[in-house]
Design goal:
The chain is an alpha/beta fold. It folds into 2 domains: 141 residues, P-loop containing nucleotide triphosphate hydrolases (Rossmann fold); 65 residues, Wheat Germ Agglutinin (Isolectin 2), domain 1, CATH 3.30.60.20. The strands form 5 sheets. The protein has a 6-stranded parallel β-sheet with strand order 7-4-8-9-1-10. Strands 2-3 form a two-stranded antiparallel sheet. The radius of gyration is 20 Å and the shape is elongated. Keywords: ATP-binding, DNA synthesis, Kinase, Metal-binding, Nucleotide-binding, Transferase, Zinc.
Length: 206
């Protein structure tokens, strides 16, 4: 039997933590283990052959559209020799639950998963929450609110795009506390209402 560990992180913390956990799992009690890391091929910001933190830490990885193709891409014999599988950007994999269950329960792998449990609207993101019942442990990581320095538990989108999947870094998202998440949304909604009312007035005077 294997194990499944789930990290629910804020922004760049996911990559940093998954690197640390995979490195820790790689050499435990003087036993060197085989590790593979998977990320979604949707995120091409730092290339497709590695995951990179903002402070420059890097590990090679496989960028895939889905997890079901991992065993074939990695090689059947190589997969059998694996001890640890790290999954970054887990919210982008629709087959996350089935892969984690199979790898941990039947293949005896330790699976370390990092992904956002909620999107910028604070609603569930992808299949991430579905794997919690599978997990041996769950760690919810937080950052610091960029506006006040308090513990940040939410992600605020800075731009006006409304699609659920919008890949970006600090240029698009910022970690915020509850107070500033709510207050910024109120300000954005108020500004939107004013702009819409101005548009209506312009049309009525035309």
């Amino acid at each position: 039997m294997g194990a499944c560990n789930f990290l629910s992180p804020q922004l760049i913390l996911s990559i940093q933590e998954i690197l640390q956990l995979c490195e820790a799992s790689c050499c435990t009690a003087l036993l060197c283990r085989s590790v593979a890391i998977i990320k979604s091929n949707k995120d091409t910001r730092y290339g497709l052959d590695s995951i990179v933190t903002h402070d420059g830490a890097k590990l090679p990885c496989l960028a895939l559209p889905d997890l079901s193709s991992f065993r074939q891409k990695f090689g059947l014999d190589a997969y059998d020799q694996l001890d640890v599988i790290g999954i970054d950007e887990a919210q982008f994999f629709e087959d996350l639950y089935d892969f984690c269950r199979e790898a941990a329960d039947h293949d005896g792998k330790r699976v370390i998963v990092a992904g956002l449990d909620g999107n910028y609207l604070r609603r569930s993101f992808g299949s991430v929450l579905d794997i919690i019942p599978l997990a041996d442990s769950v760690t919810k990581l937080t950052a610091r609110c960029e506006l006040c320095g308090k513990r940040a538990i939410f992600t605020l989108r800075k731009t006006e795009e409304t699609q659920t999947e919008l890949i970006g870094g600090a240029d698009v998202y910022m970690p915020v506390c509850r107070q500033h998440y709510v207050s910024r949304l109120v300000v954005k909604e108020a500004a939107k209402t004013v702009l819409e009312s101005q548009d209506v007035q312009c049309v009525s005077y035309a």
